[in-house]
Amino acid sequence: MLWGEAVPTVHREHGLRFIIYTDDHPPPHVHVTGPGIAKIMLEPAIALVNARGLSQADVGRALDVVRENRGMLLEAWKRIHG
After folding, report:
1. What is this structure's pTM?
2. Quick one: three-class SS letters along the chain?
């Protein structure tokens, strides 16, 4: 992350932050931070791209949150990226 880059947290749950960077690239995805990090695609299908430092349980929770909130997360992506 660069200094001055906006980092909108669009959701928090289970001690995890779900972030969409303002200068990020398509396809739509979220970054998840907690005791580690992960990247999860929203389209064309929900998929874990990578995870580092998160337990399997935290990765599972993050994927569950994305499944349950996919519509809201896609709306946030569109609001942030136009």
Report:
1. 0.90
2. CCCCCCCCEEEEECCEEEECCCCCCCCCEEEEECCCEEEEECCCCCEEEEEECCCHHHHHHHHHHHHHHHHHHHHHHHHHHC
